Amino acid sequence: MATKQKEKKPLHLAKMNIKRGDTVLIITGKDRGKEGLISRAMPQVSKVIVEGLNIAKKHVRPQGQTRQGGIIEKAMPIHVSNVMLKCTECGQPTRVAHDRRPSGADGKMRSVRICKKCHKVIEDRMRSS
Question: Which of 4, 68, 75, 127 has its CA 20 to 30 A from that of 114?
């Protein structure tokens, strides 16, 4: 019996409060209580991949002379509702609010993420470097 595959959301409708480079705390599942860095965000399916967490063993066949076969460990996606963003200022896991503030050299109004606990702007690790 085939299972129904979930439909992907159109990219303009897929919104998440978590981005690549954010530090998150896993709140449910086998890795509950652990924290890690987001290596990939998939907003169309509302999932994220956290470096070094939610590891599964995958059996791969050798591909001619290019790839060796064997058992590899692979980080699997976690649903975004099972992780919580850690604030860059207070270091606590928090919910996210959004506000429009002037930012950048040009001073344009841009949407920024705000910590619900300390009410400070959550730094975007990818932009700041």
Answer: 75
